[in-house]
Amino acid sequence: MQLKDKSTGTRDALMLGAAGIVAASVIGGCTQTVGKPGEPEHTAGRVTFTFNDIPGTGNTKVLNYALFLETLEAELYRQCLVRLTGGGDDNRGNKIAGLGLGMDEPDVRFVKMFKTVEDQHRVLLQTALSAFQGFQAVKPSKYDFGVALADRRQVMETLYGVERTGAQAYLGAIKYFPDKTYIRIAAAIQGTEARHYAAIAEVNNLLFHSQNSVAPLATENHGIETPQEPDMVLAAVSKYIVER
Q1: CB 98 within 8 A of CB 87
Q2: Mean pLDDT of 216-234
Q3: What is the CATH number of domain 39-243?
């Protein structure tokens, strides 16, 4: 499949197994910072989450942490799709005007596809948590991602930052599982999130001549993702939370 760069002609782009990502997402979430140069300004979050605020202990706590991240990502993708296309609402009832892009545009295509995957991740984790009698799932929050006034590039740069952070978040959280029961699921989701940010990086580099990294370089932690501790991740994404 090809992506078309309207300024330089047509070039082959890595689809990175996109069909496989969707198929694998039933078992299959944000780099070291959330927010990259070129992102819109964000309303300062009034809520700061810590790992202690995540309900549960042991497996349920880590699964709830993952659910928190997947719920945030699913809502981010929804709002980004709304902004890129025909408009709609955020999850606080505020209007988001659309940029009017068509569904055949490469960024819109990937955002729509990955939104579905993040929704499936969320359902998967909710299902896993339902196996624990009397479990308390983390409540969804209200968010201000700053996309209502973002341009096309800013929307995609925001997604890139959150997805890279998600890939590192899973690596940082796996050690908190008390046993191996859910490590396979967490690792599968982490791999999918890494593919997401690689695909978004490729699209951003193609459309906007960004310099997003599709994977860690050899000079970055020996070419492997750097795990992020849950409190680091939650401190980073808390800027998006305006109501808990």
Answers
A1: yes
A2: 92
A3: 1.20.1260.10
